[in-house]
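Q: My labmate handed me this sequence with no annotations at all. I'd like to see what the chain might look like in three dimensions before we decide whether it's worth expressing. Could you predict it?
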Amino acid sequence: MSTFQNVLDVMDWDQISQAIASKTIHDVDRALGRRSQLDVDDFMALVSPAATTRLEAMASLSRELTMRRFGKTAQLYIPIYLSNECTNQCVYCGFSAENEIARKTLTANEMIQEAELVRSWGFEHVLLVTGEDARQVDVDYLVSAVELLRPIFAQISLEVQPLSVADYQRLLVAGATAVYVYQETYHQSVYKNYHKKGKKAIFDWRLETPDRLGEAGMRKIGLGCLIGLEDWRTDSVFLATHLRYLEKKYWRTRFSVAFPRLRPHTGEFEPKNPQSEKELAQLIWAYRIFDPDLELSLSTRESADFRDSILGLGITHLSAASRTDPGGYTTTDHSLEQFSINDDRSANEVAQAIRAKGYEPVWKDWDAVLES
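A: Here is what I predict for the chain of 372 residues:
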């Protein structure tokens, strides 16, 4: 099966970086003036340093496109961490196998307790998250979790270890609506520096996961890079290329892009290439202009002020009231968390902030019954 690896093999990281740096104001204005679908070269201009003098125009166009496609709404979701067990050694992650933290995997009863509590807050879209340990959290566990929680939520998404096509088909039948998998960085030559051991250290296996999801017929696929590892501009061009490839090959599937910036966690890793909020806004607007139909998601890694200010300018999906530890909603002990959040407002407070800006918080965007 042909995969994105075939495309990546003919791309060169340094050449892409140089091409981004060479973009001019003329290139940016041409991209902003396009009335047909933008290509990756246009996207390159929009994330370039040259575009920093056109941020107001980018924000205005991004607002217009978002309003036209999504209206004055903000989709809300919440993560439920099922397990922090992990066999990978990733230098940036609090769940890394080398970190001496207590490990926990939720039982069925504990899942129900977490689910019923967050459902009482209004959430109908839940994202199930685990570390990557195929012994403790295998596909049978994940299928059981989806089946158990399906009566409670209208939408169930997952962010778990990469699986096979057959495993994703099982999750789809069980009731999963989306899977999110982040490449972390597309810089293949340094990927091993961040992923020391475990299956996640196999670059190709992770890279080809969206292809397996597409082959399985998953309704929505979420992509992203971990911002702070390598140059965000170059990584985003690789991701935009990956997105275009997937959209053409799996045209029945919906796609989402998230913007996870590194946050403090257990360990001593410091971001090599930190991104400012101004640069994050530029990246969000570039994706909206590049793909007006794309779902763009922003988590509670970001501050309340930034999340409120960016609303309506490109972002369509927001997490709220998040905890990043298994059992985090029904306990006061958060020593098991993957990373610390930034926006710690309650679900109701986030919803009120959305309404205060004239937007409507939406707790789900479809019912499975409508697709049956």
